[in-house]
Design a protein that fits this description.
The chain has helices spanning about 15-35, 50-75, 75-80, 85-90, 90-115, 120-150, 155-185, 195-220, and strands spanning about 1-5, 10. With about 220 residues, the protein is mostly helical. It has one domain (about 60-220): SLC41 divalent cation transporters, integral membrane domain (Tetracycline Repressor, domain 2). Keywords: Magnesium, Membrane, Transmembrane, Transmembrane helix, Transport.
C-alpha cells in the first residue's frame, strides 16, 4: 500500500506492517479503556516496576474521583441515619449505573474507531441510547422492586430504589454518549477517558440522584 504525504509518494507499507499497525492501535485503545497506560512491549517482557508506573497514574486519578463519592455519602449522612435501609442498596445502584455506562462507552468508542459513528451522529446516538436505556431502566426498575420486596423492605424504600434505578440508567446513557463524542469534537481521543473513569463519575452523581429522591419521598432534610 502506498504512503502519500502532501500528494507525494514517500514510501509503501507491506500487508504485515499494516496489520501490525492496526493491532497496535486496537491494543492501545483497549489498554486506555481499562484505565492503564498502553504497554510498549509484550506483557511478559515488562517488569512489575513498569507496570506500576503504567497503572498507578490512572488508579490515583480514579482514587481522587472515588473520594468524591465518599463525600456524597458523608453529605447525606443524616438521611442515611434516618432511613438506614437506604444504605443496603448503595452498592447495587452505583454498580448498575457504572456497568451501564461502561457498556455504552465501550461500544461507542469502538464504533467511532471503526468510523461507524461520526460527530454529526451525536443526536442519533443519544436518541438510540436513551431509547435503549429506557427499556433497560424499566427492566432494572422491576428487578429492583422485586429485590426490595424479597428483602422485606417497606413500600416507600422499594419505590425509591426502583425509581432511582430508572433515573441512574437514563443518566448513564446521557453521560456515556455525550462525553466520548464531545472529546472527539475537541480533538481528544475518546479512549483516553477510560470507561472506569466515566463509571466513577456516574457513581458519584448517581448517589446524589438516589439521596435526592429519598429526601423527596421520605421528607428527609
Amino acid at each position: 500500500m502506498p504512503v502519500v504525504e502532501k500528494g507525494e509518494l514517500v514510501g509503501c507499507l507491506m500487508e504485515k506492517e499494516i496489520a501490525h499497525l492496526l493491532e497496535d492501535d486496537v491494543t492501545e485503545d483497549v489498554h486506555r479503556q481499562g484505565a492503564t497506560l498502553p504497554l510498549d512491549k509484550p506483557y511478559l517482557e515488562i517488569s512489575p516496576w513498569t507496570l506500576w508506573k503504567k497503572r498507578s497514574v490512572w488508579l490515583l486519578l480514579l482514587f481522587v474521583a472515588e473520594a468524591y463519592t465518599s463525600s456524597v455519602i458523608q453529605h447525606f449522612e443524616e438521611a442515611l441515619e434516618s432511613a438506614i435501609a437506604l444504605a443496603f442498596f448503595i452498592p447495587l445502584l452505583i454498580g448498575t449505573g457504572g456497568n451501564s455506562g461502561t457498556q455504552i462507552t465501550s461500544t461507542l468508542v469502538r464504533s467511532m474507531a471503526l468510523g461507524e459513528v461520526r460527530l454529526r451522529d451525536m443526536g442519533r446516538v443519544i436518541r438510540k441510547e436513551m431509547t435503549t436505556s429506557l427499556l433497560i431502566a424499566i427492566t432494572l426498575g422491576l428487578a429492583g422492586c422485586l429485590r426490595a420486596w424479597m428483602m422485606g423492605i417497606g413500600m416507600e424504600i422499594t419505590l425509591i430504589v426502583s425509581l432511582t434505578l430508572v433515573c441512574i440508567t437514563l443518566w448513564s446513557a446521557v453521560v456515556s454518549s455525550v462525553i466520548p463524542l464531545t472529546l472527539k469534537r475537541v480533538g481528544i481521543d475518546p479512549a483516553v477517558v477510560s470507561a472506569p473513569f466515566i463509571a466513577t463519575l456516574i457513581d458519584g452523581t448517581g448517589l446524589i440522584i438516589y439521596f435526592k429522591i429519598a429526601q423527596h419521598f421520605l421528607g428527609l432534610s
